[in-house]
């Protein structure tokens, strides 16, 4: 399918069913209404992957089926995110131990440097979000604005960073 035909298909779909789709997602998300635009975008991206949209018999039914799959995957991802660990609590606890022994302090500093390098290689955005939020005290909305992403995407970056740190702090001990 040509991109012009695809764009016309999606434009028409958004005009006729966009409001219903957003309402459908918002009702099912309740507490995460900020994620509705991202999920709606994901639905449209999946529809862009269809090679031959003319074969769809019932476009609204197909749209909402795709939306329900996106919601299901979103919920699975949310359930897989562990509760966040307060990295600053871990740092202060380790610093209290390190204050008494210089060798321990050097070891801890080296661990955190390795952790920071590893996180940066894993995801530069997650690393930057963690540093901006925890060290500089910037709110997630401001970080999202600086990156040009949504608030929920900035939350995902922070969650990704915290999950990485939690996993690798556990390995280091």
Task: Describe what you observe in this structure.
The protein is built from 8 helices and no strands. 79% of the residues lie in helices and 0% in strands. The protein has 2 domains: 3-80; 87-172, Arc Repressor Mutant, subunit A (Orthogonal Bundle). The chain has helices at residues 3-29, 36-48, 59-80, 87-98, 102-122, 124-135, 140-147, 151-172. Helix 5 packs across helix 6 and helix 6 (124-135) crosses helix 8 (151-172).
Keywords:
173 residues; mainly alpha; Arc Repressor Mutant, subunit A; 2 domains
List the helices and strands and how they pair.
Blueprint: H1 3-29, H2 36-48, H3 59-80, H4 87-98, H5 102-122, H6 124-135, H7 140-147, H8 151-172
Q: Which structural class best describes the helix and strand composition?
A: mainly alpha
Give unreliable regions as ranges: none
Let me know the largest β-sheet: none
Supply the CATH architecture of the largest domain. Orthogonal Bundle
Q: What helical percentage do the residues reach?
A: over 70%
Number of strands: 0
The averaged pLDDT comes out at 80
Approximate shape: elongated
Measured distance between first and last alpha carbons? 54 Å
Number of domains as seen in the coordinates: 2
Write down the CATH class of the largest domain: Mainly Alpha
Rg (C-alpha, Å)? 22 Å
Strand content: under 5%
The run of helices and strands is HHHHHHHH
